[in-house]
Design brief:
Layout: H1 4-16, H2 19-28, H3 34-56, H4 69-90, H5 106-110
Helix pairs in contact: 1-4, 2-4, 3-4
Length: 111
């Protein structure tokens, strides 16, 4: 039942983790800061490891969750975004100037 595509998706989930959402949070938001992203990376990586061990069948039945391998990367990205944004809402930090770094501040540089 395993194919090259399945193996590629599992390997990308293992090494790619939350790279997509890491980029999108930096591009699309002004609220999320460095500390909340680093905490979210650690938690999302642990969640990623749990889901990969789960899909490989290496976890005990008591903690096993039925998740298809195709959903691992999506769930890790959603976990990363939710945790990073939630932490940044709870932990207010002084904002630095972001002119030209997000989609919301590109126009400020052009004018």
């Amino acid at each position: 039942n395993e194919s090259v595509v399945n193996l590629q998706i599992i390997i990308f989930a293992l090494f790619g983790g939350c790279v997509t959402s890491f980029f999108l949070l930096g591009l699309l938001t002004r609220r999320v800061h460095y500390a909340s992203v680093m905490i979210a990376v650690v938690l999302a990586t642990l969640f990623n490891l749990f889901l990969i061990l789960n899909s490989a069948g290496w976890l005990p039945e008591a903690v096993r969750v039925e998740v298809h391998e195709y959903w691992v990367n999506i769930l890790v990205n959603v976990c990363f975004v939710v945790v990073a944004y939630f932490i940044s809402v709870l932990w207010h930090r002084q904002r630095k100037p972001l002119q030209g770094l997000t989609v919301w501040t590109v126009e400020e540089v052009k004018s």
